[in-house]
Amino acid sequence: MRGNVGRKSATTFDPGSRRSWSNSSCWKESGNQRRWRLTNNGVEVEIYGERYTIRGGTDEQQVTRLASEVDRQMRELALTMRTATPAKIAVLAALHLAHELQEVRALQQEKEADLDRRAFDLMETIEAELGSVRAR
């Protein structure tokens, strides 16, 4: 394999650049069945047949889990959308993941509000009990 042809870096690859993700070349390494590997410059992952190097202070296991989830989402969508481009599948997968994230955040806010209400009620009960003990 010559140079970094077909490889992308999450820190330098700009989807708005002239060389967009949808028409970039696919970097293939024969015999490599792994979806990711650690390099000196970051974690290399494969998402929907494309290799990306993720750089930064991120946890390698977390990066691989995230990449696997994105890959899974894209492959599931591709089964139902046989003629869609990889870029379209990626956008739809991103929308699906954003929707899931929004649902989780809403649930978290509900739980936090419920916890605040319960803590307030408990404080009032404690204060009422302390007030009755002091009155004796």
Notes on the protein architecture:
The chain has 136 residues and is α+β, with helices and mostly antiparallel strands. It has one domain. A four-stranded mixed sheet has the order 1-4-3-2, with helices on one face. Helix 1 crosses helix 2.
How would you summarize the topology of this molecule?
Blueprint (H helix, E strand, L loop, with lengths): L7 E2 L26 E4 L2 E6 L2 E5 L5 H21 L5 H50 L1
Parallel strand pairs: 1-4
Antiparallel strand pairs: 2-3, 3-4
Helix pairs in contact: 1-2
Mean pLDDT: 78
Percent of residues in helices: 40-55%
Fraction of residues in β-strands? 5-15%
Q: What is the first-to-last residue Cα distance? A: 86 Å
Strand order of the largest sheet: 1-4-3-2
Specify Rg, calculated over alpha carbons. 24 Å
How many runs of DSSP E, i.e. beta strands? 4
General shape: elongated
What low-confidence regions span 5 or more consecutive residues with pLDDT below 50? Answer: 1-36
| Structural class computed from helices and strand pairing | alpha+beta
Largest sheet: 4 strands, mixed
The helix-strand sequence is EEEEHH
| Number of domain modules | 1
So how many helices? 2
